[in-house]
Design brief:
This protein is an alpha+beta fold. The protein contains 20 helices and 27 strands.
């Protein structure tokens, strides 16, 4: 009976939460592992365009604060891809090394390319600028051979000199994103000939090619032009501008505070090389939808419904469901069936500072997990789709090879990480010295447990109120902080729980486990770097992760160690995994088809146009009219 009452209460709570969705929200600062797209693309209210206005929004008068390469040529709406996104970087920042200010997410990924891409749903590498990337037998050397057809937009050949310059810049420039990885792993960078570069590592580095040199989601490095950047006194201060030579298929031709316009380069080297067919999308218009996380997405949704936008940043469950109901030409990753999205690389847990009482007690952390009814969350928040999780990484094909193994299944049966049991939760709390007070809350030494859930309203308003109620039912003094300080509270290790993701593993579990390595356990009073909020430290666990590091994922010893690591993760309840993260992106098929969905693998990527692989999504679209 108690569970039925809880389900009824949570259902009513969800109706209220969904009705309230779209209020003010705050931005979470970005660190090395990125939060999901909504934390960077924060829409603000704007007036919807009339339905009959079918022309691409490219004929606006050039304002004083606009940048342009000249008069815009006429491009028909049916040749134009219109995307909704928050364009917040300074005008003209196209240089990947500009710091601060550069982001690939604001259509710059259409200008810059990598040596290779990773196609997450095909679970395979797509070589691009590189024709081959081969390790030696012990993973201490990596030889990269470039495609001879590759060239920059100004006609200059793209050679090993550019690749070596890119690598040396990362190695020697502390402000660049992958400086730490190059510093730790790279012993030497050698140009063998015009098309060949050899990296020599300090130790076996089987993941360097994938984690650093391959573009996927928001990670990896693009190759930059040596002949352009070597002429700059300060490569970080150089913005790039609209005319910076680049290797990718599109050139930014107009940019102001309302939109960014990119046109196709008819001389893109990849077409000439036979790597890809000439793209149907002749123009990209990225409409700036503003700056508050999750605010006024109903307005953006209506523009998708009206065929004014072809796609936009992802929507909450209720909004995308409404879009699909209103326009039969719009689809999602799962069509018209829940959960309407694909798994992003950012599964969310309730993190806690494991150095701070009472979260330093694994039994208390386990008691929290036992208080979470994941079945109810799936039923109420996700309309029956199984989105909840027990893992700190997304269930992509490469990772499912581990989770589906006999060793992991046996550990799952032993530790029951999905279990919901309020009585067992209560027994653990009593064993930890807590007593239930008259208000139904656990108490010790006259104080209840601060279980404030810090999160972000624009992306968590559907799930966090449900978690709050479940924790209250289990005796934890839960509340919600969606304030502007929520991210800082997490980074500072404040009391409470942190609803946040794990931007780490994609192909094997090593990167996720490394998040909990003791070398990242910052003392109380110090800021937790790169979103490693748990501050967990365990020499047994560290030794396992250290032994995994030089091994390839298909090594039997790596598989044994991965099983040992997940056992400790569940045994110690390092954090409390809650949900796989979803990107619910609307794909309008009025003008464009061949969007990547469960029914259409496409090129094998996810559908986020803001990711590095967004270039592959856009250039693979088919014209519908």
């Amino acid at each position: 009976m108690k569970r039925k009452l809880l389900l009824l209460f949570v259902a009513l709570l969800m109706l209220f939460a969904l009705a309230a969705c779209g209020g003010s929200a705050t931005e979470a600062p970005m660190e090395e592992e990125a939060a999901p797209a909504e934390e960077e693309a924060m829409p603000e209210e704007e007036e919807a365009m009339p339905e009959e206005e079918e022309a691409a929004p490219a004929e606006e008068e050039v304002a004083e604060d606009a940048l342009s390469l000249g008069e815009l040529k006429d491009v028909a709406r049916e040749d134009t891809l219109v995307m909704g996104w928050s364009v917040a970087s300074p005008l003209g920042v196209t240089n990947p090394w500009a710091s601060p200010g550069y982001t690939h997410q604001e259509a710059n990924a259409m200008m810059w390319e990598g040596l290779a891409y990773f196609l997450i749903y095909a679970d395979q590498e797509q070589l691009w600028l590189a024709e081959s990337m081969d390790y030696n037998e012990d993973y201490t050397e990596l030889t990269i051979k470039l495609r001879p057809e590759a060239k920059w937009s100004d006609g200059t050949p793209l050679t090993s000199a550019d690749v070596a310059y890119t690598f040396e810049g990362q190695l020697n420039t502390e402000t660049l994103n992958y400086h730490a990885q190059f510093k730790a792993f790279v012993k030497s960078i050698d140009v063998v000939d015009d098309l060949t570069v050899k990296l020599t590592f300090n130790e076996p580095s089987p993941r360097f090619k994938f984690e650093v040199l391959t573009l996927k989601f928001d990670t990896g490095i693009p190759i930059v032009p040596k002949h352009v950047l070597e002429a700059e006194a300060d490569v970080n201060a150089f913005l790039g501008g609209l005319d910076m030579p680049h290797s990718g298929p599109y050139t930014t031709v107009f940019w102001d505070n309302t939109q960014k316009i990119l046109d196709l380069r008819e001389d893109w080297w990849a077409v000439e090389a036979g790597l890809i067919d000439a793209p149907d999308v002749k123009r990209i218009v990225m409409i700036n939808i503003g700056g508050q996380v999750g605010q006024s997405m109903e307005v953006v949704a209506q523009r998708v419904v009206n065929n004014e936008m072809d796609t936009a940043l992802d929507f909450r469950q209720d909004i995308i469901s409404s879009i699909l109901d209103q326009n039969p030409n719009v689809t999602s990753h799962t069509g018209n069936e829940p959960p309407f999205g694909y798994l992003d690389w950012w599964p969310n847990s309730l993190w806690m500072n494991t150095l701070l009482p009472p979260w330093d007690d694994a039994n208390v952390r386990r008691a929290v997990s036992l208080a979470i009814n994941r079945d109810v969350i799936d039923d109420v928040v996700y309309e029956g789709a199984q989105v909840t999780t027990i893992y700190p990484f997304p269930l992509y094909p490469g990772l499912e090879k581990f989770t589906n193994s006999d060793a992991w299944k046996a550990l799952e049966e032993q530790y029951e990480p999905r279990k919901y049991d309020l009585e067992e939760s209560a027994a653990l709390m009593e064993g930890a010295g807590f007593t239930m007070n008259g208000d139904g809350l656990w108490e010790k030494d006259g104080e209840t447990i601060n279980a404030t859930i810090h999160g972000f309203e624009g992306i968590h308003s559907d799930i966090v109120p449900v978690l709050e109620e479940m924790l209250l039912q289990a005796g934890f003094d839960a509340s919600i902080n969606f304030g502007s300080d929520s991210y800082q509270q997490m980074a500072d290790g404040a009391p409470g729980l942190y609803m946040f993701g794990h931007g780490a593993s994609l192909a094997d579990p090593y990167a996720a486990f490394e998040l909990y390595h003791g070398r990242f356990s910052e003392a109380i009073g110090n800021t937790a770097g790169s979103n490693r909020f748990s501050r967990y430290s365990n020499p047994e666990f560290d030794a396992i992760v250290d032994e995994m590091a030089p091994l390839p994922a298909d090594d039997p010893r790596f598989e044994e160690l991965a099983a040992q690591a997940i056992e400790i993760y569940w045994r110690d309840q390092i954090d409390v995994p809650i949900i796989q993260w979803l990107h619910r992106i609307a794909y309008n098929q009025t003008y464009w088809t061949n969007w990547p969905t469960t029914a259409n693998l496409g090129v094998g990527t996810n559908g986020a146009f803001w990711h590095h692989t967004g270039m592959l999504v856009v250039t693979s679209l088919d014209k519908a009219q």
